[in-house]
Amino acid sequence: MNATELIDLQRYPIHTKDERYNLLVEGVRDQLSRDGCAVLSGFLTQSGISQLCKEADSVAQYGHRQKNRTNPYFTTDDPSLPEDDPRRTFFDRSNIFIAADNFTHDGALRSIHDYTDFDPFIRDCLEEINFYRYADPLADVIVNMAEEGNGFPWHFDTNNFTVTLAIQNADSGGAFEYAANIRSDSENFEAVKSVLAGRSELVTRIDLQPGDLQLFRGRNSLHRVAPLFGQTPRYVAIFSYVEEPDMVGSPERTKQLYGKVLPIHLAKKADRKDGFLD
Prior knowledge:
This protein is of the alpha+beta class. The chain has a single domain, classed as q2cbj1_9rhob like domain (Jelly Rolls, Sandwich). The chain is built from 7 helices and 14 strands. The strands form 3 sheets. Strands 1, 2, 3, 4, 5, 7, 11 and 14 form an 8-stranded antiparallel sheet that branches. Strands 6-12-9-10 form a 4-stranded antiparallel sheet, covered by helices on one side. It has a two-stranded antiparallel ribbon with strand order 8-13. Helix 1 (19-35) crosses helix 4 (118-126). The radius of gyration is 18 Å and the shape is globular.
């Protein structure tokens, strides 16, 4: 499959290095510097949206379904902490992740991911010196599928940078909400607690449309996907990048998200330098 037919290169000339490219990158950087989130509306062509929907439909039955209760850090309850501590604030969570090993290299999703100019464009936008694809064979590029009643409660990402493509929306609901850079030098538990209680003014809400590309600094920004309604599943592709080569998920987190682990998860270290809880 040809990525040049899936990406709207007229609107987003990521394949060039001319002034149009420079202006595009500068605009994305400005969005990211303001609040850690940038949205490129209509990044995909209509054909691209159609092909990604078709591919997601074809592997949807392999998604790992999970229903549990989780706090923003994916940790267990600690009765030694105050009852209103965010580490003791749990929400119902129901979600479906279609792991990366379900997508073939000649399919639409990996054709975009492997397009020669895609990674350099993302790296230029993020302005990262240390920039690597997530080496996790289950999580480098996945599709998050959500059905009626599903959502993804408040959490932080394990990767510093998350790149997503909206593929298909539910009939209603599913807004993306985030509190930008709520933790940086510390966990900032008081501010997190305010968001969880629904009384924070730091929260921004956006409604992504099919074909939109989003760059998001989710390691430091608390965020969620609101519950969905209707019979149409919501599909969002997630491309993951990290600051160190050969990084993979921890066995515990990988099992939780994808329902399985591979030998690489047991052999490689998943430790991170930032020292955050998750």
